[in-house]
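Figure 2 data, in text form.
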Amino acid sequence: MSGKRRRSHGEGSVFKYRDGFAAVLEVGWGEGKRSRKWVYGKTEREVLGKLADLRRRQEQGQNLAAAPRTVGEWLDEWLRMKERDGTRPSTLQGYRKLIENHVRPALGRLALDKLTPTVIRRLLAEKTDSGLSATTVRHIHGLIRNSLGDAEREELVHRNAAKSVRPPAMRQVERRALGVDEAKRLLDVLKGHRLEALYVCALTVGLRRGELLGLAWSDIDFDAGTLTVRQTVQRADGRLQLVAPKTERSRRTVPVPAQTVALFRAHRRQQAADRLAVGERWQDHGLVFPSKVGTPMDPDHIDRTWHKIRAAAGLDWLRLHDLRHACATFLLVSGASPRTVMKVLGHSQIGLTMNTYAHVLPEIERAAVDEAAKHLFG
């Protein structure tokens, strides 16, 4: 470095440097030693502007002494942090997929503290224009926002640039609802099937696929006619794992219809026969719906079996998850309050229940008004 050091109106140390100017700002301690930031420019005004920007970022709480990171390096560190914090393996797997497929290729080499709302907005627009679903684009936005939130708390950035970026709006997709006659046809097809109890439980109790596969015999109270959701089956790193439900609301005890309880009893007798048939190969995990040797059942097997069942019932449009929606719809139409349905399904917020099943609310309101009129007019 050459040139004479001088100050400009108390703005900081400015140097004549080669064919331009340079400035220096002490930013604290980093990695055990005093840290300085240098800025360069063709004019003194340009350098003073950069110096003022550094001071502003420092005042806003950004740790300028921290070692510089790229977005890709921070995301790798962030994933390790999330893993140490006990984030579910399936959630981590989803994060990695979004990072590798969408975020790292576009932003990985960019300096973390140079990430701006404009850059993030352009990425989301590109993903939307490429035909990616609004749901996936919103997941990308959420991942970036959450990771930058942690970077802000670590004082690696002075603000969360994703907060001011709006993700694409979700379009409400109207799905066909399972009617009572269709449900009865489905039940007729299921009679005698090895997994009849599983699919009937999905329809009458509204359990998710992972909750059904994680259900243990100790979770069923046959006398009280209830079951408790304590664990789910998820695939992570190529292995099936039993994990705790994601939220406190998902950990729930719900009533089970007598007809479904009877199917559980029959299923337990069938499982006892299966266990005798395989002998020492049986690995007891205490599950209600295990594989043929007692281990957690592959969710893909449930899906493949479901495709055959719905086709036999003439309901090719019906997804397995639609049984959960059908359960909620039948409960609401039968007079159950939205809060009761929220508890049965394990929703985290009443708004989620109301928004998801808004299509049946007019029917419920009509029934309530008619019932009130009966009392008034006899």
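Caption note: Strands lie at 5-7, 13-17, 20-30, 33-41, 220-221, 226-229, 232-236, 239-243, 252-255.
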